[in-house]
Amino acid sequence: MKFLTIIFVAITIISCFLGAMGDTCTQISGTYQFKDECKTKLYGDEGCKSACNTDCSGKNGYCGNGDSKTPDEDTCYCVN
To answer: Where is the signal peptide (predicted)?
Structure first.
């Protein structure tokens, strides 16, 4: 059982690392965004904030909430 736990943790860490490597901070409609950053529980709001802080020059990040400025709930939006 302990072995399975170690394997699960290793897979989780690797998938987070590889997922983060593929993310790019792109500017869409004047707003910097990470597409699909908020899609899974692995990232969510904390992963979004971290990605925006490191790759978008210290901007604050938050997941979309469906309004006109942040329409896609899977996307991380980076703002000043």
So the answer is: 1-22
Distance CA 6, CA 68 (A): 43
Query: With contact defined as beta carbons under 8 Å apart, do 34 and 75 qualify?
Result: yes
Residue 5 belongs to some domain of the structure: no
Half-sphere exposure for 11 (CA within 13 Å, toward CB):
6
Structural domain containing residue 52: 26-80
**SS3 readout for 50-80:** HHHHHHCCCCEEEECCCCCCCCCCCCEEEEC
pLDDT tens sequence across 51-65: 777 777 766 778 888
Asked whether the beta carbons of 73 and 66 are under 8 A apart, the reply is yes
